[in-house]
Design a protein that fits this description.
mainly alpha, 10 helices, three-stranded mixed β-sheet
Length: 315
């Protein structure tokens, strides 16, 4: 629980969100709801297909199912509360609930950072050493990678949430979007420079390290692709790698801008735009980029709908 300078207890924060009911804000609210529904349906569909179709029981789709689950949890941590506050006009949140939102949010961001790195490594092994792929990426190794992602994310989330709410807070209690660390720290009436340095170190580990692994993996994949004899195979592999790298770059660069900039360079409008990328846009795009364009996933969907060669009655 945070205290102000005169030692009175601050019990809650005020979430402004999209508080103005103007046509522009209504359009923005509608866009957010549509993005949420697309992300919700796309990721739930991916989890259903991967778990019900035996052809998708491979390491790549195993990781994709966990990515879809993380995206579902990430977008559900922020958007429903934002929508409710908009419909009610204004919302307040207790410090305990704010801390839990930070915990879940930062944990899931950390989970995705490491999971995306493991997925890039999985694709590198599949492309560069296909004969030993099943040995290197065994079932046990895949589970260890997923467990490691959750562990690193949870440790980072606990540290960030507990430390953020340990500061005294005074003055304005208004947060312009949701309980994100940069937005909450602006309300602290104490020197947070040491904590900012600690956040920067955490971001080097949680963002730059996985992003480096992803970049190196994709670079090695591209080198392998260029050595392919089939022009069609090179084109297909390059298109897949480029689309994956584009989404990963969008996610990581937005997170880096949000968490690695000095506090003095943060503004409410910029933070809103940047946070939209890794809270709504990438969870919406991931099923489309990673999965729904895939022929195996399309075949699984056809079978689920009863239109495929093994899915029931033919027209």
């Amino acid at each position: 629980m945070a205290l102000v300078k005169n030692q009175t207890r601050v019990s809650h924060l005020i979430l402004l969100g999209l508080s103005n009911h103007t046509p522009l804000h209504l359009l923005l609210f509608s866009t957010i709801v549509v993005m949420f529904l697309v992300a919700l349906s796309g990721n739930r569909l991916m989890i259903l297909l991967i778990n019900t179709d035996s052809h998708l029981h491979s390491p790549m789709y195993f990781f994709l199912s966990w990515l879809s689950l993380m995206d579902l949890m990430l977008i559900s941590t922020i958007v429903p509360r934002m929508a409710i506050d908009y419909l009610l006009g204004r919302g307040s949140i207790s410090f305990t609930s704010c801390g839990l939102q930070i915990l879940f949010f930062v944990t899931l961001l950390g989970d995705e950072c490491f999971l995306l790195a493991f997925m890039a490594y999985d694709r590198y092994v599949a492309m560069s050493n296909p004969l030993r792929y099943s040995v290197v990426m065994s079932h046990r190794v895949c589970w260890l990678m997923v467990a490691g992602s959750w562990l690193f994310g949870l440790v980072d989330g606990l540290f960030q949430a507990i430390y953020t709410l340990s500061f005294p807070y005074c003055g304005s209690q208004e947060i312009d979007h949701f309980c994100d660390i940069p937005a909450v720290l602006k309300l602290a009436c104490a020197d947070t420079s040491l904590y900012q340095t600690m956040i920067y170190v955490c971001c080097v580990i949680m963002l730059l390290l996985p992003f480096s692994v992803i970049s190196i993996s994709h670079l090695l994949i591209l080198i392998t692709v260029l050595c392919m004899h089939s022009a069609e195979g090179r084109k297909k592999a390059f298109a897949t790698c480029s689309s994956h790298m584009a989404v990963m770059s969008l996610f990581y660069e937005a997170a880096m801008i949000a968490y690695m900039r000095p506090q003095t360079y943060h503004s409410s409008k910029q933070d809103k735009v940047v946070s939209a990328f890794y809270t709504m846009i990438t969870p919406m795009l991931n099923p489309l980029i990673y999965s729904l364009r895939n022929k195996e996933v399309a075949g699984a969907l056809q079978k689920l709908l009863g239109r495929g060669p093994c899915g029931g009655r033919q027209e």
